[in-house]
Write a structure and sequence with these properties.
Elements: H1 2-21, E1 28-29, H2 31-41, H3 48-58, E2 66-67
The structure holds calcium ion (CA) (2 copies).
Amino acid sequence: MLAETAHMVGLKELRCAFKQFDCDGDGKITMDELKEGMKTLLGEKLKKGELEEILADIDLNKDGNIDFDGKRFGT
Ligand SMILES: [Ca+2]
Ligand SMILES: [Ca+2]
């Protein structure tokens, strides 16, 4: 029960964060949105190589975007 609740909170926060990164609201986070999001939300200026690494890590279907309904973020 407790674990389930924690999972739900985590997912809700994740969705919330995702929305903030997804500027144009198309349900995907592109490399540019990731870059802007890191800069504005986290105050981190990442190098292109670092962004590519993060993107490659999260983008499981390798289409170049992070999608919320992809495997990692799916419900
Ligand atoms: Ca987007
Ligand atoms: Ca993807």
